[in-house]
Every structure is written in C-alpha cells, then in structure tokens.
Amino acid sequence: MSGMDDSSPASPEVMLTFYRRLYPFKSIFNWLNHEHTPTRLFTHREFAFTLQGDVYLRYNSFATADELKKLVCQLNPTRFEIGPIYTTRPKDKKTVRAGAFNAVQRELVFDIDMTDYDPIRTCCSGADICNRCWAFISAAVHVIDQGIREQFGYEHLLWVYSGRRGIHLWISDKEAMELTDDQRKAIVGWMTVIHGGKESSKKLSIRLNSRSLPPSLKSALDHLAAIFSDLILADQNCFGSEEGYETLLQQVPDSRIVGDLRKKWQKDPTRSSEDKWMDLKEEIKKMDKGTPQRVALTLALEDIIFNYTYPRLDAEVSKHRNHLLKAPFCVHPKTGRVCVPVDPERIDEFKPDRVPTVGQLLRELDTVGKAEGEVEEHHSDWEKTSLKPYVDMLDKHALRLMDEVRRSKREMVDTSW
Ligand SMILES: [Zn+2]
Fold first, then answer.
1. Other beta carbons within 10 Å of 168
2. Closest by alpha carbon to 158, among 223, 166, 150, 167?
3. What is the rounded CA–CA span in Å between residue 264 and residue 299?
4. Mind naming one GO cellular-component term on file for this protein (predicted)?
5. Where in the sequence numbering do the catalytic residues fall?
6. CATH: 3.20.80.10, 3.30.980.10, 3.90.920.10, 3.90.1150.10. Which one for 12-192+313-415?
7. Which of 199-213, 249-263, 363-377 has the lowest mean pLDDT?
8. Rounded to the nearest whole angstrom, what is the distance from the C-alpha of residue 94 to the centroid of ligand 1?
C-alpha cells in the first residue's frame, strides 16, 4: 500500500484492505440496530452500493453484521449508503405485491454542505475548503445541535464529516425514527431560515408577522451575532469588496442611507467590513428612536445577521424517510478521507485536513504489522490506527442508544404487571 498519495482517490486494492481490516462493521451494526441481537432495524434496512464504474445496487439487506461485511468485501464498493427500514426485507422486495413495500422508519437526517455557502465565503471557491471556511460549518453545527436538542428534545445525535466539504447529522431517538414524511417536512421548515440546496435563491423570510422572531431564532440570535462579528466581519471580510458591500446594501430598506454609504465606501476602498457595519449602525443611531423607519432598519440588521450566519440546510435530504445517506466511515472517493464522527462540543477544534485518509491508515497498519512481526490478518485492526478515537466515539454513541432500549424494555415489563 505504500506509495499512495494521501490526496489521490483510493484504488480497489486499498479499499478492499480497508473494508477487510479497518471498517467498523460491528459498531455500525450496533448503532443502526440499537440492540445486540439483530432486529428489524437492521434486517429490514436498505443498503445501497456504488461500485467501481458507478454501478449502483439498491435494496440490499442483511441478517447480521458479518453478512454485511461479507458482501461489502465481495463487491468492494467505492462507497455505500444507508436507507430506511421497510415493511419487508429490502432484498425480498420483488417477492411482495406492489404497495406492500414501504419505508416505515429511519433516522432523521440533516445535510449541511459548503456549496450553499459559496455565495458568501471569500477564502475559497468550488470544491476547495480550508479551515477558515470550515467555520461556517462549525457555526451551523452549534446552532442545529442546540436547536434540535432544545426545540425537539432529541438526544441521540451523531454528526459525521462527509469526507470533503460538508457534514451529516443522524438522529436516532425512537420518536425521530418514527416521524412521517410530513412531520419531517414540518421540522425542516421550522429549522429553515436560509434555503440551501435547490432553493438557495429564495429570499430570507423569518418573521412570523412583521416584527417578532420565532422562539427558536430568538434564542440563537446572541450566538449568531458573535459569529457574525468574528467570521463574517473580521475573518471573511464579506463586505470588503464592492460586490460584497453591494449585496449588503441590497438588504438595507432605506434608499437615503444606502446612497450615502455607497458614496462613502466608494471613496475609501480600504474600509473593512467591521468599519462598514459600524457605519451602517451609526446611520441608524442618528434616527429618532421609535420611528417606524428606525424599527424597520433595526430588524433588517437582525435579518442580515441571520442571512450570513444561520445554517443552510439541504431540505430535500431531511424530508423523506427513503432518502439514502452515505454510511459513516466510508471513504470519500476524491479526497481518500474517512467519513468520521465529529463531536459537536469540539467542532471548533475539528480540522478537515487532519482527518485520516485511507492511505495513511494502511501505512499505519503496515508499521504496526512490521513492529509486531505479524503474519496473520486481524479484524478490527482500526484499534491500532488513528481511526480508533472515531470508532470509540461511535461505540459510545451506540452504547447510549442500546442502554435506552434496554431501559424502556424493562419499563414495559414492569408496567405489564
Ligand atoms: Zn476557505
């Protein structure tokens, strides 16, 4: 495996070794199944495989983690995705009458991708990402993680780096698993301020009536204002360029102020985003308190903060139970990076470029193998590599889920007396 460049896509040989020795099938099973013995959460679950040459195989299902591992090693996919739990085992789909094969349960999932931040980030463009623009993603994680826990009471949240320029959230609480498509749509609508994905051109609309903010946003505002100051003004300098400040001025509902500020900023191109934001606030302070004009402008400032800092969600991913999402610990085919779980409490320290690549992991295995004089092949070899802390994170998460299932089963027995 030596000689593989960290940035080059993984070869079939590399991928096969990765699946055979490193992929944590058991941990994935525990996380999806919520119990040690296989339940419908696993056996009736769809897996979809993308093979070399972009062949796509849907409706696979497995009785055990070993069975899954066996087929993965046989097919050696470039990646695989996890779908919903169906009324029938997905592999038996063809044997049941039409209409009897339905998705019934699935984690509530969210997808945040840098693509939706392209209009506002100034450090990179296209497929590129750096630790600076990752700050948009970490800001989104803070807001969504807190919002989901506080507004909906869900506790079993797993954040997973997508391997390139985004992050996925999987929510495994029983109540979340059982949400209908309509309920999912409602939750996403509640969480959506800025439309990501196909609807990203839509305008910001956060006011319930002309004035008040929904409670979910009111509680986020202080935090977002801090992000706005650090990330948008100081670091990204979003209003530094003419294009940048013109976008800002479009959101100011007062033509006199817009005209004055434009003149001032055109005259002095060195004014930073922080200066310009101060200029705008000063203009508003000059107006008489309580006038409708001043109130409208104050609300516009809040809207601008939301517009630049609020998480941009790809709603389509979350709305449908039967949406497939790349499994954690798959390898991103372009970057070679493993899609590892991320601790939301430490998201600010997370550096995408530090995530292990498959090439790096196999080199680590080579090194330990030589040191130990190993001949025999081991499974769960991830323990000997820098993948370990990430697998541990998933195991801890799965354990909490399994504890809860055990607890609720015991309660059911107790109350049945
Ligand atoms: Zn960047």
1. 23
2. 167
3. 23
4. alpha DNA polymerase:primase complex
5. 46, 111, 113
6. 3.90.920.10
7. 199-213
8. 47
**What CA–CA distance (Å, rounded) separates 263 from 292?**
25
d(CA 297, CA 154) in angstroms, rounded, equals 36
CA distance 373 to 116: 49
Structure tokens at 32: 């999806």
Backbone CA torsion sign across 213, 298, 263, 237: negative
Q: How far is the C-alpha of 112 from the C-alpha of 168, rounded, in Å?
A: 6
Asked if residue 141 lies in contact with residue 344, where contact means CB atoms within 8 angstroms, the answer is yes
Tell me the CA end-to-end span of the chain in Å, nearest whole number. Answer: 60
Amino acid occupying residue 219? S
Instruction: For residue 251, give the 3-state DSSP assignment.
Output: coil
pLDDT of residue 53: 86
Distance 113 CA to ligand 1 centre (A): 13
Token duo for residue 401: 């889920």
Res 206: pLDDT: 61
Around ion ligand 1, which residues have CB less than 5 A away? 123-124, 130, 132-133
Single pTM value for the model: 0.90
- Mind listing the pLDDT tens digit for each residue in 70-116? 999 999 999 999 999 999 999 999 999 988 999 999 999 999 999 88
Determine the distance separating the centroid of ligand 1 and the alpha carbon of 272, expressed in angstroms. 19
Residue 14 is inside which H or E element, if any?
helix 12-17
pLDDT in tens, 357-372: 999 999 999 888 777 7
Residue in 322, 358, 326 with CA at minimum distance from that of residue 49: 326
Give the pair of three-digit tokens for residue 83: 């779908």
Q: Residues near 258 by Cβ (< 8 Å), separated by ≥ 6?
A: 249, 252
Phi then psi dihedrals of residue 331, to 5 deg: -105, 130
